Amino acid sequence: MTGGIIKQVIRFGLLILLQVWVLDKVSFDGFVIPYAYVMFILLLPFDINKSLLLLLAFFTGLVMDFFGNTLGLHAASLVLLAFVRPGVLHFYFPRLETQIGEEPGIVRLGLFGFIKYAFTLILLFQTALVFLEVFSFHHFFSLLWEAVLGALATTFSVTLLELLFERRKRKKVR
Amino acid sequence: MRNLLLFLIKHQFIFLFLILEIVALFLLSYSYSYQRSLTFNAANDLTGNVLKTSTNISDYFLLSEENKQLLDENARLRDRLPNLKQAVAPDSILYVADSIYDYIPAHVIRNTVNRHDNFIILDKGRDEGIEKEMGVLSPQGVAGIVIGVSSHYSIAMSLLNEHAKISARIKKDNQLVNVIWDQENSLEGTVVDIPSHLDLEPGDTVVTSGNSFIFPAGINLGTIVSYHKSENRSLNRAVLKFSTDFNSLHYVYLVRNLRKKEQEKLLEEAER
């Protein structure tokens, strides 16, 4: 149990640093930034207390907001992601049996299942992000397009990282 | 009462969600007011230190580019030297201007160009004499305005910010205009309030007016890219290519106006 918490803390720290030091400086086509740090919330165990999930999402979002000088923006979007996470998992995988502490990663959901799960939540997250940032529906379709592109970039980076993590894990098991 | 409590506990997930969203949106709406960007101190020392570490790492990779920029700047300054020698006679106006503005070099530790509102975080703060509303200059021209300081860091809004509006002049005929950013891309801004009798050509230089007490007069803002005169409007707009390359912004100078208080006081008295 403590091992699990330490692992989460390390993952949290690494993802935040990766986001602030590397990914925030990457941008495709101007406004599109891959927000791979949301992976922290995506990968929390299946059986995590739902209220704890919300609180962790709020905290993670606030940390990003402090670095990005966007007070409340990431927090609001990420809490929304965390709120629908249990529902989306149940919707896509209604009959999935999970063990204590198991994570919704590629190993459990399969590559396609994971991408489906991640993209759904990330698209919601990025849509909230762009509309809250501008706070208007004035350029509705261009903003929506921005959200879709952002979601693709984020899902791509999250899947790539997850593949890297998983490969290391499998080596360890052998 | 007990029933209410049970009800809340039973639906704690939804209530917690609503509470957290309300808090986040409250913070967000607070951060939308321009006043907040002036009072809220986002440049705190903790995030500053983390960002500084990353800059120390990336600095290493940018050395050659930086070197080139500094050499360019050196060359430009050298070009101006002969003129200055002539101009710095004891009673020259230029001499006085020099004693009004003080320049403090600083290092950019975070800079965004792809948000709707962009900020620059610098590694100089209150302890080094940085104050709000000091100008930020890149080696190529105007970069932004300081809006918050902590003890060792400061945060400036870059020209790539919705709230940035810089008083400027068309260099060739000294006409007053304003420069804003319309959030299109990080290379181009917009010149607004152009009087209709003015004819602009692509390539015309736009410089600071010196009217704001923040920037000295005559600092490069950019060059005109295109200008479309509309018949039915008295004030026109033009597209401006910024002279500062915000993507490679790394070393900047903060401008301290040594006589700002005096100038402001005078203005206040006159307006009363």
Largest sheet of chain A: none
The number of E-state strands of chain A comes to 0
Biggest chain-to-chain interface with counts: A-B, 35 and 36 residues
Supply the CATH superfamily name of the largest domain in chain B.
Answer: Rod shape-determining protein MreC, domain 1
Given the structure, what is the number of helices of chain B?
A: 6
Query: Given the structure, what is the number of helices of chain A?
Result: 6
Structural class of chain B: alpha+beta
* Level-1 CATH class name of the largest domain in chain B: Mainly Beta
The strand order across the widest sheet of chain B is 1-2-5-4-3-12
Number of structural units classed as domains of chain A: 1
User: How many beta-strand segments of chain B?
Assistant: 12
The ordered H/E elements of chain A are: HHHHHH
Please state the average pLDDT score of chain B: 79
Task: Describe what you observe in this structure.
The complex is a heterodimer of chains A (174) and B (272). Chain A contains six helices and no strands. Chain A is mainly alpha-helical and 174 residues long. Chain A has one domain: Arp2/3 complex 21 kDa subunit ARPC3. The model of chain A has no long low-confidence stretch (mean pLDDT 86). Chain B is built from six helices and twelve strands. In chain B, 36% of the residues lie in helices and 29% in strands. In chain B, strands 1-2-5-4-3-12 form a six-stranded antiparallel beta barrel. By secondary structure, chain B is an alpha+beta fold. In chain B, a hairpin with a 7-residue loop joins β7 and β8 (188-195). The interface between A and B is large, with 35 and 36 residues.
